[in-house]
Amino acid sequence: MIFPLFSQVQLTEDIPEFNLKKGSVGVIVEHYPMSQGEDGYSVEGLITQDTVEVTESQIKLVKVEQVPEKASIKII
Predict the structure, then answer these.
(1) What's phi and psi for 18, nearest 5 deg?
(2) What is the number of other CB atoms lying within 10 angstroms of the CB of residue 27?
(3) Alpha-carbon distance 64 to 29, whole Å?
(4) Residues 22-71: pLDDT tens digits?
(5) Among 64, 47, 54, CA closest to 28
(6) What's the rounded Cα separation, in Å, for the pair 58 and 21?
(7) What is the pLDDT of residue 2?
(8) Strands (E), 4-74
C-alpha cells in the first residue's frame, strides 16, 4: 500500500534507535519507492525538528474524521 503524502500515521512498533514507542503519531512528508522490498517514508513530528525514516510495515494510517463546516451567517 502506498500512503499519501501528508497523511497522519501511527507507528506499529517501537523504534528503540530513536526511543520511539508504538502508537506515536506523525505525518508523512516524503515517499521512497523501492523496486524490491518495502517502500520507505520520512515521517515528521515523531522527533522535534527532524524526520524519521520508516518502512511501510512500521506505520499505519490514522483515521481522521471529517467534521462538516458550520454555515456562516453574515450580518449586514
Answers:
(1) -115, 10
(2) 16
(3) 17
(4) 999 999 999 999 888 899 999 999 998 899 999 999 999 997 666 666 66
(5) 54
(6) 11
(7) 87
(8) 8-11, 25-32, 40-47, 50-55, 59-61
